[in-house]
């Protein structure tokens, strides 16, 4: 019985090793930048929200995501073949969990932005009118939740950056 199970497990592992690479599956964000873009200059996005300091946080998160994927990227630079520009359109906060008294105990912050990638001549290679990043955080009724919200904004900026990078590098 154990031999049959071990044989089936080994066969399944070999089959998966052969099929998965052949079906075109790849990890998210592991593709390449569009149309020969070899380096990415990320501009600090215009911030239409009331959250001061969010725009540089988003730009930095996009660069971190790009560099982690092996790309040449920097904030506010020149001399790279692609320029990524964006606009933070809204930041919204919504209550997602309440206690028995009706007080919020968990909230979700959502950053909505638009981005476009242009080549050295200014031709648009990629754009998305709506990219979002979200994060949930705990709220203590009656207490100041500013620090928790600010930490969640940082996480939402990272989520937004991941979604931008996936959009830039996926080809369907």
TrEMBL record:
Transmembrane segments: none annotated. Keywords: Lipoprotein, Signal. One of its GO terms (biological process) is Gram-negative-bacterium-type cell outer membrane assembly. Residues 1-24 form the signal peptide. It holds the Pfam family LptE. The keyword NADP does not apply. It comes from the Bacteria. InterPro entries: LPS_assembly_LptE. GO terms for cellular component: outer membrane. This is Outer membrane lipoprotein LptE/RlpB (LPS assembly).
